[in-house]
Amino acid sequence: MTTSPDPQEYIHRAAVDPDGDRIGKVSKVYLDDHTGQPQWVLVETGLFGTRDSFAPIHGSRIDGERVVLAV
Questions:
Q1: Residue range 25-36: average pLDDT?
Q2: What angle do CA 18, 58, 1 make, to 5 degrees?
């Protein structure tokens, strides 16, 4: 699995688990201060996106309009 070098490619995509089950929608990407590479995504979860959860980008991949998270 690989990660995308462009953080903007993650935003507004559906976040799913490795089985393809929807987790939520990616609303923000956090970069490593030293390398500038994407490290974490903020995923809106819950009813109407009322909760936010962080997920590591490491091991994730973009599959069409979805971000498949490794964790």
A1: 94
A2: 55
